[in-house]
């Protein structure tokens, strides 16, 4: 895994809130590991489209900075445009609501990463299989090994694209409400409300006789039992 | 609030997964009410940028279909470009991990809305104050009424933009794993893991002597106590 600092270019350098910028690539990788959904921004026609997508990460992947893998239907409208332009993938985890004494300083605690790059369509069969396994294992580590290999028909229906993790930035806000010097003279409650994601007990399909796999139970525990 | 169906144009009609399309505007408004973070897609220079943003909603707002309000620093790099183009705002809530017998049918349960439109910069002082109150009340309903009005300096530093909710689409997936006819002959566990957001007890700033307001406690309970 590369240890280059984040934000190597002006276009991934935040114009605002630089105090919240994070320059540690390990924290980017930790955020990508925590998050389950990414938002992909692609220009389709004359306007941007932002779509929620699952993803997988290979920190030692073939692309500069490691590889972020996305997949989609070969019939998806965003696929062809995405291969002809630079796209943006943003991953955000909400960590809390920040309630200051002023509306102006109301905020959120969060971690957010912005990755910009030119997607590469993955054509090599081995890399495609590996990328799809990474997407499945991103949901539940160890899950891919429980499943049979993708069929030829499934592979033909699925496009896999790779985005280098080289050009990325990360911002984070944590802790309590920002206090302006004058705010101490105000009255009223201020503080923050931690927010997090939890999972509930797995729901087994009625045609299944096998027990819930340990890997799934571990994932539920890791996400925090709801 | 308009009752027009969603997806009135081709560019907000999903190209894939039309079975997951939701045509009920009330469910769009319910999703916007549930979600705390939106992702704004804007073309800045030669590529899209996707940024997490707080937002507020006025179902009876002055724009066609109601109004989605965003705010940001007047110095934000995305602001000027956003006012000269159509942008996309996407709101996604993750509801679960779907673990099928095949990797191909691994999926997520989610609700996601895509809104496309030309932002309008809000200049009217009354509408700006109201919009900023809506953003604060989106975090904790009733919070804005506890705070003093924004100062002239705060208002001068804050841009408010309005996006019509007219051109929007929504997709939703819920329930268990998709079963292909052949999957019954496979073995192995399949099911889904419900996922949701919870809040923890509010953390009061150490300079505050007032108790946690009821509105904040209600919000924590509503989000689900963690």
TrEMBL record, chains A, B:
Residues 1-16 have a biased composition (Low complexity). InterPro entries: Pyridox_Oxase-rel, Split_barrel_FMN-bd. It comes from the Bacteria. SUPFAM superfamilies: FMN-binding split barrel. Residues 1-21 are annotated as: Disordered. Pfam families: Pyridox_ox_2. Transmembrane segments: none annotated. This is Nitroimidazol reductase NimA-like FMN-containing flavoprotein (Pyridoxamine 5'-phosphate oxidase superfamily). It comes from Promicromonospora soli.
